[in-house]
């Protein structure tokens, strides 16, 4: 193989890999959005499960922080269009930006642990702790932005005589804990499945 042929081969492999990542990201985003249609309230005020966080966590750990951030950003924009506008989740442009593109995009920070988690899995080690740790970073970032927006913009919905920031902390902190528990259960029960989903062949 000549030098030019080798360069052409490497370039094509790189382009194919990028296309695969983009395709996976589109499918994961569609899945996360579809899961938004599944009833997900806990019965405790506005505390809720966000099932789309699970496929997003897997994708970010599988493909890294850049791909995770982009997929989360697209998820947030689509969620804003399909649910934010129609269900009263959009109050003004700044609040909409913080609670949708920014908050959902921050989930991609889970990808910071991609290399470490995959290396652990490739060596046959138990990576549950790492998966939970890095997932907690993305989950926390998402609900932190919701917490900020809640304290500033959603104070009118707080119970009478209750501080808006305390109310926002209870709701968003509760949602963060609920989703971490959901992830913990799934990672423990479906550990082998998670392993296969996170390790990519290309």
Automatic annotation (TrEMBL):
Keywords: Membrane, Transmembrane, Transmembrane helix. The keyword Transmembrane helix applies. The keyword Transmembrane applies. This is Energy-coupled thiamine transporter ThiT. It comes from Companilactobacillus nuruki. InterPro entries: Thia_Transptr_ThiT. GO terms for molecular function: thiamine transmembrane transporter activity. One of its GO terms (cellular component) is plasma membrane. The chain crosses the membrane at residues 20-38, 68-85, 97-115, 127-145, 165-190. Pfam families: Thia_YuaJ.
């Amino acid at each position: 193989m000549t030098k030019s042929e080798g360069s052409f081969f490497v370039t094509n492999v790189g382009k194919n890999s990028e296309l695969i990542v983009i395709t996976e990201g589109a499918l994961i985003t569609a899945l996360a959005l579809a899961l938004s249609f599944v009833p997900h309230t806990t019965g405790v005020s506005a505390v809720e499960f966000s099932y789309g966080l699970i496929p997003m966590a897997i994708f970010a750990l599988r493909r890294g922080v850049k791909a995770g951030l982009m997929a989360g950003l697209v998820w947030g924009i689509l969620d804003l269009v399909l649910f934010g506008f129609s269900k009263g989740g959009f109050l003004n442009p700044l609040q909409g930006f913080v609670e949708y593109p920014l908050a959902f995009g921050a989930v991609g920070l889970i990808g910071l642990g991609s290399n470490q988690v995959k290396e652990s899995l490739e060596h046959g080690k138990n990576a549950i702790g790492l998966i939970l740790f890095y997932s907690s970073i993305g989950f926390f970032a998402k609900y932190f932005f919701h917490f900020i927006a809640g304290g500033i913009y959603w104070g009118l919905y707080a119970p009478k005589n209750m501080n808006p920031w305390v109310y926002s902390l209870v709701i968003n902190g509760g949602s963060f804990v609920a989703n971490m528990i959901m992830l913990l259960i799934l990672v423990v029960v479906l550990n082998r499945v998670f392993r296969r989903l996170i390790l990519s062949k290309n």
